[in-house]
What does this fold into?
Amino acid sequence: MSPPPGTAALVIIGNEVLSAKVVDENGPWLLRELRELGVEVRRVETVPDEIPLIVEAVQRACRSAAHVFTSGGIGPTHDDVTIAALARAFERRVVTDARSLELLREKIEGKTARRMNAAQLRLAEVPEGAQLLWDAQSIFPVITLEQVVILPGVPALFKQGFLAVRERFRTSPIFSRAVFLASSESALAEHLDATVAAFPEVGIGSYPRFDDADHRVKVTFDGRAEAQVAQACEFFVARLPPGAVVRTA
Amino acid sequence: MSPPPGTAALVIIGNEVLSAKVVDENGPWLLRELRELGVEVRRVETVPDEIPLIVEAVQRACRSAAHVFTSGGIGPTHDDVTIAALARAFERRVVTDARSLELLREKIEGKTARRMNAAQLRLAEVPEGAQLLWDAQSIFPVITLEQVVILPGVPALFKQGFLAVRERFRTSPIFSRAVFLASSESALAEHLDATVAAFPEVGIGSYPRFDDADHRVKVTFDGRAEAQVAQACEFFVARLPPGAVVRTA
It folds into this structure.
């Protein structure tokens, strides 16, 4: 069974994230971008720089979602294992991409009159059958293999790479409404249950707060059918006692 | 095969994170805390509020790591399914915890002279066999089931809950050294390979930058044996040409 269209999964590859040396900013940034494009993200998995774990995570992501994005592990050093892992995940060989090699030669040998070393040659390696998109400004190409877009982990390069392919993923928008409430979640639960039952196509979430905000609960309504989202929101609000709603958005 | 001691995995449960309505702050915060305690985090998985996906993620986390932490999905509404998912993951029934029920009764019925509703009764439900830690200040108990610590998603409550059990997880510290370099990763790769081969117990990472920072690459050395970490760092630095090192930390 192939994953539903308009869905995505993210695989964040990096010991530096798991060891709290850096806070991943690529995941949250891409979640916002994909939401804006109407894409529903089904999972985000952060894994170490270890080929077997990346292979499993990528295969799981491919079963979960139509589009998969990886962040990190691209480069010439020992801890850059994403290309090898992707090749293994799809049972491909790792091959040298002729165009990448040519561009790297121009850049490196042209400038320095030195031969490329083994590490530099690795930069031209891709899983066999991958598609490469070279952008005039970019240091790395955007590499795609089947449904997987392979992006570098350095945030500026990650963003540049995604923005070069962004419009490929746009789909029908997800509409959203929110109601901010003065009631507790316990008082709302029966009305939420009734709304969930009446509008099975609308995603409904309930988010309490325990601070001094102007509301105690935010309820959200999400879906691709704008009228249904609005109706679900109105159905819910109509069930509530007077004074329950602080504001809507 | 049981997972190695001193390891952890995180399962972040929440449609609101995947749909970019909020940026998860519990994951990054807990990664820093666990690092400080010497715990090695092996994976972080963010999944929707869907029982089958939570069950799979929790079971995978339990195979990967000695300690598992979940964030979110605790509460009285339809989208709070973590207790049900944990019960299913461990093949337990969902039962009402007598002490929780008593505390909720005091709090809710004592104040309002009303009977608890069905949603409020759900707040006392736990997987059978779970351990509960009630803290005087807290609204929710910290629930543990086998190796899993079940924490609420609201950041203030998540932090309060973890801090109540934090010291249980402290283990031998992870030592870290860093070298900041003026060279490119390609020029460093052979020296990194030699260091990785000579110090198999030390985790070595290489992180390039492409901005105007004072260095082009940061190389990190991590391990539980402080002397080995220092030796690996010195071994690497000694191989480099003069001027390569900008600074160390």
